[in-house]
Every structure is written in structure tokens, then in C-alpha cells.
Amino acid sequence: MDEPCSALDPGSTLRIEETIRELSDSIVVVIVTHNMQQAARVSDYTGFFLSDGGPGQLIEVATTNEIFARPKDKRTEDYVTGRFG
Fold this sequence. Notes:
There is one protein chain. This protein is α+β, with helices and mostly antiparallel strands. The protein folds into 2 domains: 43 residues, no CATH class; 42 residues, no CATH class. Helix content is 40%, strand content 15%. The protein is built from 4 helices and 2 strands, in the order H-H-E-E-H-H. It is globular, with a radius of gyration of 13 Å.
């Protein structure tokens, strides 16, 4: 899903996120989002991709808790804490 809740009101976003969680019990759901709060709410695992003008590269992948609480790569930390992006 590419930005599944962009431009939705909070009530609609909540319903979409609940549906994503329900679906994830039986299938793998991949979400692309710039919304860090949403990623933290609905994902079990998170990957951080970065593009420096060329093709994007996978910088880090871990449990969502690890990515947000203890990222291993400084670029990941800078992004999830809002230092850049």
C-alpha cells in the first residue's frame, strides 16, 4: 500500500489502520509511508530506505520498536527523530 491514509481525516485513518492490522493477521502487508507515527502504530517490522539522488538503498530493517527506540544507523535515527526529512 502506498500512503494508504494520505489526506484522510483522523476517523477514516483509524478505520484504515484497524483494517491493516486485521489483514496482517493472515497476510503480509507492505506499506510505504512518510508518516512516522503511522508506521509506528501499524507495523511489526520497519525498513528505512534512503535515496541520495540515485536509486534508493535499504539502510536498515528491524522490528519497529528497534527502529524507533534503538536504530543502529545514524541516518535512520536522524530520520525517525525528525532531524531531517
